[in-house]
Structures are given as C-alpha cells and as structure tokens.
Amino acid sequence: MSPREIFALRDYLSAELIGRTLSDAHDCVSLTDILSQTVLGGRLRELSGRAVLLKLSDQLRSGLAMIELDGIARRMLLCPPDLNPAYLDALIADAEIDAIVTDEPDRWTDTGVSLVVTAQLPLQATAPVSTERATEWLMLTSGTSGVPKIVGHTLEALTGAIVAEGPARGPAPVWATFYDIRRYGGLQIFLRAVLSGGSMVLSDPHEALGDHVARLNARGVSHISGTPSHWRKLLMSGAAAQFAPGYVRLSGEIADQAVLDGLKAAFPNSSVGHAYASTEAGVGFAVNDGLEGFPANYLGNRNGVEMKVVDGSLRIRSTRTAHAYIGRNAAALTDDDGFVDSGDIVELRGERYYFVGRRGGIINIGGLKVHPEEIEAVINRHPDVRMSRAKSRKSPITGGIVVADVILADGTDQARVKEIRDQILDQCRAQLASHKVPAVIRFVEALDVTPAGKLARTDA
Amino acid sequence: MSVRSKVIEAIQQIAKEQHVTLPALSDDLSLHETGFDSLAFAILVARLEDETGVDPFTISEDVAFPATVGDFVRAYENVPA
C-alpha cells in the first residue's frame, strides 16, 4: 500500500497567484508571493507537529495563519470570534493544545501553554516550506449553551465538495461571505477562494451593512454566501440595490421559498442556490433550481454522498463528514453505519423533501410538538413580511401558545398593519394545524441574529 | 375603552378568526357555551395580557378559572392597578 499524496493549502497556491488578494475592511494582502512570506514572524518551524490554538481577533490574519500552518502543524483549532473565554481551558485540554497563535500574546503569559507565537501584519519574507503531514482541522460547533464540541476534519474532507465541482469556469471568482471564516460555512468559502484560483473579501462584524456592500462592489465580488438571516437583513437594508453578484449562495439555516424569491427579485441576473452543510456532516448537496427543499431522489448514493431519513431526521455518510468529536468525553459522531445524524427534520411532500426544523428546536404547544421554522416559512410568504420568528409563550390555559414577531418591509403603510396581521393569520390558518397558528403577532423593528448568522432562538 | 368592552371585543375578534358562532354574550352565559375551545381561550388570555398588561390567571395561584362570561370579565376588572 503506497501512501497517498498529501495536499495542504500551500500546494494549491503554487501557481497563478498574480492579481489574487485576500482582504478585509482595513488591509489587502496580495497572494502573489504568499508562499515566501510569513504572518507568524518566521516562527513556523517551531509549530511543526504541534497542536495549535488559533485565537486571533481578525479573519485576515487567521486565514493567512491557516495557509501557513496547514501541512506543518499536527492540528489546528479555529476559534470563532464570539467564543466564550471561559471555555478555553476545557478546549485546550480536550484538543491537547501545546501552542497558541494569537495577536494578544500578553493574555497568554500565565497559561499552561508555553509556546505562544504572535501573528502580525505586514507579512515578512521567509523561505518557503514543504508540506510535512496532513494537519487535522478542528472546528467548534455553534450550539447555544455549554462548552462547544470540537469537531475533527481533514483538509481532504473539508474540500471534498469543492474538488468534486472542479475548477470554476470563466474568470477567476472573487468570493465573499457574511460568515466568519473560522466557522464551517465561512471556511468553505475561504477554501473555495484558495482552491479555485480566486480572491476573497472578508467580512467585518463592526462594519455597517451599507459600507460592507460598498466594499464588496469596490473589490468586484462575484460569488457570495450567507445564511438566510444574513440575506434577509441585506434585502431589508436597501443596500442590495447597488450590488450585482453573479452567484448568491445560502446555507446554515432553512432557505424558505420567500427568501429564495426575494433574492431572485433583488438579483435578477444572478444564480441563486442553497447548500446543505453542517460542521459535522460536511457539505451534503447544493440545490440550484430556485425551489426550497430538495428533490426526493437526492436520497440514496449521489456523487459519493449517501443520505437517508431516520425518524424524520436527515442522516449523511460521505468522505466529507467530520471524522470524530475530539476530547476526553467526546460522544460518537456517527451511528454504527458511519452516518452522521444531522438533527435536521425533513418532510416528504410529493417528489420533494422540505426542511421543517431542528430536532433540538422543537417548541411544546399544549403537549404538541411544533417546529418554529415551519410557522415562519408560512408567515414569510406574505409579500409585506421580511423576516419572522415564532416562539412559544406560556399560557395558563394550554401550557403554551405560539406567538410570532414579524418585521415588515420598509415603508409599509401603518394604516395597513391590522389588515396585514389578518392576512398573515388567514394564511397560517389555511396552511397550518390550528395549534401552530400564532395566537399573537407582534410587529418589531429587528430580530436578533447570532454571531454565527442564525436567527437567535433563546427559548428553543 | 372600558375593561369590559375590551374583553368583549377580543372575544368577538377571536370568534371571527376561529369561525366560532357566538351566542349572545350575557354575564350568565357559561364559558363552555361560548363555543370556545381551550386554544381559543389561550389566545384570548394572551391578547388581553398584551392589551391590558395583566394576566389574572397567572398572577394568583388560587384564582379558579371563571365559569361564566361575567366571571371572566370581572377577573380583569378586579385586578389591582
């Protein structure tokens, strides 16, 4: 048995680098000589074979450090910006971290980790190095409570869908995402930009949406991804009018028909597609027919991704899934047959499966199980609605009732609000079981979105 | 608008939404005879809480759920301001 050739990010960056950039709101780094430059102050050798915690305050240096460390470090753990510092000790122990890459070295002087490397810009010149090993990529789940789980990937698994699609046709894409690249959805886009010969424009959590879109335009972004919540916010902002990307991608939450139609109307010359992926299950599939849900014939084995539905939940087995949860008390990531249970509940209607919600997100309405997403999808179909959130509220009579917070389109005539409320309720009564129809509809100005770009569901 | 008329209006609105044909609403009418099911009452209590700021059935543990329309209205009228 001969060993397989190991590819690291640097091996995808050896040719045709001229004109390619990685940029954020403050800096723009040329990829032209990237392999003979260092963001680690020339200290990469010290990190060879180490388990590295990547804890940086910005995505740009994080991305550059990933390019440098991949193929050299034994493993690297990507910390998203909103990680609760209280969990760091547990994560360091579970991932057996023995080196830190940070831009705040003073904060690490008293920890048990003795090797601390500072990531800094501008880049410095260094001698290029060769790939030594397949680095294990560790990512954190974006669950809402407790220490996040550490999910182990390889670059091969992370890039499986990208390699399968082959090189992009036409001019090299300029990628952007509303996600942070230290989360699965954002990392996919970063890896696409590295592998596909293009450039990438990073997001900045402190930047106003209008400024962000102006920057996307100025850098000629052609391909962009985000969650449905990210996209709804963009559609509401009015900033979409100046933007004309060629490809618009949704993932991370259920893409309902309303948001797909809204994007198609806002970007009539773009292709709009939604992808199904999760940190654990990897990239499952992309849907490009403009419709919510996915064709029933995606089940079974399709392009090396096997899917089945067990107890309503989608299960996936492929070479793109994570290989394990990492840590002392880590649970099994797959079932006995190697399938990852996504916890995403689907329902077959006709020839298509539709996502109805998360198994963990069920709300209890008088003893009946309700997926809030299913209610939101119906409310969002009203043409004056931009975004909505359904939740349960305690009731002294039935234990719980459904209430909904709704954001109306900008400039909706206040005189029509009562009429719109009645229309939404009529729509819900026509399409939902009676206990799922909101008892109370409240019109609000904004709905919270988590740092991971998902609608905040604090009570779910 | 008086508390009583707010309650009556909310009952009529929910009856319309739920396609319930209400009999004449007198104080003596038992709540059972209104044709409301528990979901309709749950909606009524939630809406009145939003409108009046009180839910008399949650505030006090020993408040029995009223038996008649009149009891129901009084539960809202008797809430201390």
UniProtKB/TrEMBL annotation, chain B:
Pfam families reported for this sequence: PP-binding
Domain Carrier: 12-55
Tree of life domain: Bacteria
Signal sequence bounds: none
Protein name, entry field: Acyl carrier protein
The species this protein was found in: Bradyrhizobium japonicum
